[in-house]
UniProtKB/TrEMBL annotation:
<keyword id="KW-1133">Transmembrane helix</keyword>
<keyword id="KW-0560">Oxidoreductase</keyword>
<feature type="transmembrane region" description="Helical">
    <location>
        <begin position="12"/>
        <end position="38"/>
    </location>
</feature>
<feature type="transmembrane region" description="Helical">
    <location>
        <begin position="283"/>
        <end position="302"/>
    </location>
</feature>
<keyword id="KW-0756">Sterol biosynthesis</keyword>
<dbReference type="GO" id="GO:0005637">
    <property type="term" value="C:nuclear inner membrane"/>
</dbReference>
<dbReference type="InterPro" id="IPR018083">
    <property type="entry name" value="Sterol_reductase_CS"/>
</dbReference>
<keyword id="KW-0472">Membrane</keyword>
<comment type="pathway">
    <text>Steroid biosynthesis; cholesterol biosynthesis.</text>
</comment>
<keyword id="KW-0752">Steroid biosynthesis</keyword>
<feature type="transmembrane region" description="Helical">
    <location>
        <begin position="58"/>
        <end position="76"/>
    </location>
</feature>
<keyword id="KW-0444">Lipid biosynthesis</keyword>
<dbReference type="GO" id="GO:0050613">
    <property type="term" value="F:Delta14-sterol reductase activity"/>
</dbReference>
<keyword id="KW-1207">Sterol metabolism</keyword>
<feature type="transmembrane region" description="Helical">
    <location>
        <begin position="253"/>
        <end position="271"/>
    </location>
</feature>
<keyword id="KW-0256">Endoplasmic reticulum</keyword>
<feature type="transmembrane region" description="Helical">
    <location>
        <begin position="356"/>
        <end position="382"/>
    </location>
</feature>
Amino acid sequence: VAPPAFKDEFGGTLGATCIPVFLPLTVLYLLCVCRSPVASVIQWPPVLPPTAQLWDPLAPVLILGWMALQSFFYLLPMGKVRRAGMVLKDGSRLKYPINGFYALCITAVLLTLSLWLGMPLGYLFELLLPLAVCAIGVSFLLSLYLYICSFWAPHHALAQGGNTGNPLYDFFMGRELNPRIGSFDLKYFCELRPGLIGWVVINFGMLMKEVELRDSASLAMILVNGFQLLYVADALWNEEAVLTTMDIVHDGFGFMLVFGDLAWVPFTYSLQAAFLVVHPQSLSPLGATAIVTLNGAGYYIFRKSNSQKNQFRRDPTHPSVANLETIATATGKRLLVSGWWGLVRHPNYLGDLLMALAWSLPCGFNHLLPYFYVVYFTVLLIHREARDERHCRAKYGLAWDSYCRHVPYRIFPYIY
Ligand SMILES: NC(=O)C1=CN([C@@H]2O[C@H](COP(=O)(O)OP(=O)(O)OC[C@H]3O[C@@H](n4cnc5c(N)ncnc54)[C@H](OP(=O)(O)O)[C@@H]3O)[C@@H](O)[C@H]2O)C=CC1
Ligand SMILES: CC(C)=CCC[C@@H](C)[C@H]1CC=C2C3=C(CC[C@@]21C)[C@@]1(C)CC[C@H](O)C(C)(C)[C@@H]1CC3
């Protein structure tokens, strides 16, 4: 039996106690700020909504209906049959359906149909706060369910980090690695479907609200919608690649990921679109071209580097990666030291951050709020890089040190 893991991630027990209180309040606060005329994150006294604005009986119906609809799409026998994930502690490999892109397409068809039937999608703007409250509630309930069920999971199915014996810390980190109901994988489903697709649906609702208010969608709103739709469509098109990410391979499914997937992503990643509804911006053609170019460059780096590593991990003999320079490690796996992964140790983070900046720039320079995503994301990725570095050093030892000497910069070439 392995020794219990240390409570050393995310500030230990204190972090695991405070974050589940602080982050849900942050989501609600940011939504209130972005709808206020001043939209200042440092406004005092802070903008607080009347309690009546936090609840709408339609919200739980929409959230639960949405989860049920996306679960139904997940179970439909379409797309690639069932792909095997990474090898687990007991030597087995779980199978996953690869049909997320179809789920996005069917959702798009349903949205078009509902527009045609005259459904007021712009009403999502009014519903943002009650929807966020319900998504937060669902996150707490699901995390509690996962925590309780994990006590029936076999030992080899537990995650390394969320297994300390401290209930608060384990609830936060997640005890079980791949909780499932039958063949329905809860973590894989939540990571890519309800929150990610929900995010672009909310964005579209904000665009429709703008059309309602001003008769047409602004260029800034179209760019934000287009960029973020590209990001979500890319994630679902390359769904298989998520099977090699840290969340799926290493992290347990606890409050951090449940809340991140179901509440944080849809309601904070859509802040720029919600902001533009109340604070319209005009963009010059030159400004728009520069922003599109920045997003294109970020996307290119993000996609090429992620695909290169994914291809290399799936089949190192594939012609697209077979000629790259590598370092051998004691585990039998090799590390890339040329190509994208020879430029910096996380080229995919670099591309993702350039895109994050391009999503905020259409909102102009008069407010900090639309830049919340860039700031949060920089902190998240620097922290994530440090966590990954610790895992890799523990896994690969001297080979990792040698990789770090070959590739000294972590995310930004010649800077960090
Ligand atoms: N939009 C958002 O909110 C978020 C987006 N992301 C994005 O998700 C994507 C995945 O990120 P994440 O899971 O954090 O990390 P990575 O995809 O960067 O995966 C890290 C793993 O890659 C392997 N690896 C590292 N260096 C090398 C190398 N030189 N050669 C071969 N393999 C290597 C190691 O695993 P092993 O050796 O075991 O294979 C390491 O643990 C990124 O593009 C990131 O930007 C991430 C978080 C949030
Ligand atoms: C503040 C807080 C609660 C943080 C939790 C972190 C989560 C929001 C993120 C952890 C890793 C994520 C990934 C994506 C979304 C955000 C979370 C869940 C991702 C699905 C976005 C789309 C990308 O293409 C991706 C598939 C590579 C990515 C995977 C990691």
